[in-house]
Amino acid sequence: MRFDNHRVVITAAGRDFGRTLAIRLADLGAEVFLSARSLAAAERVRDEIRDRGQQQVHAFSCDLTDPASIRDFAAGVARHTGHIDVLINNGSRYLEGPDLESASDADIADTIASGATGTVLTVKNFLPLLLNSDKPDVVTMVSACGAAGHHRADAHDAFYAAKSAQAGFAEILSKRLRPQGVRVMSLYPPDFANPDPLSEEWEATPRGAEDALTAQSLVECILFAVAQPRDCFIKAFHFEQV
User: Fold this and answer.
1) According to its UniProt record, which protein family does this protein belong to (predicted)?
2) Which pTM was predicted?
3) Which residue, 42, 95, 141, 203, shows the most beta carbons closer than 10 Å to its own?
């Protein structure tokens, strides 16, 4: 499965799963526009990708809690291209602690802003570029914490709130954008293994029925959904938790 004809935007791609997505999609031929809160972090991943021979990769700073920063990110991408094919909303601050009072007001506001407001504004600002594509997709990494009734994670209540907001936004967005040909899909993973895609561990990580979900499988779910014919609208991937 190749993605040579895809232009992909990924938020929070300076580390962890966002970095994994950027590296894997670039390896498959996609032109990647990646962001991180720190420009230096985004540039490090960009340089890792270029060192692997893929030159069509661009780095931007984007603070998902700052509307102006999101607008600047979208404007920066628009200076490179007239359309994007896939927007992956990967960014969302994690906040740990099952005690509501354990987090400061500032941390709670930042968590909800990055996951909820940040996702809405990112889609809003990139929608014109998506509508210029003949195969537009919006992918959001929600979390099992955004699924109704989920309670097994030790995440803070604010993180649950942010993820529930993402889930509700994706649900209505899917219905409202379908007439324009935009597919909206969400992933609801529990905690998962995310080995370095540039290490030997990437291929060696066990992926049996008794093992935890892996980043490899999440990437493959996204690739599978994006590669489907345009009449196939896969709204969500939900996963069993080990």
Assistant:
1) Belongs to the short-chain dehydrogenases/reductases (SDR) family.
2) 0.96
3) 42
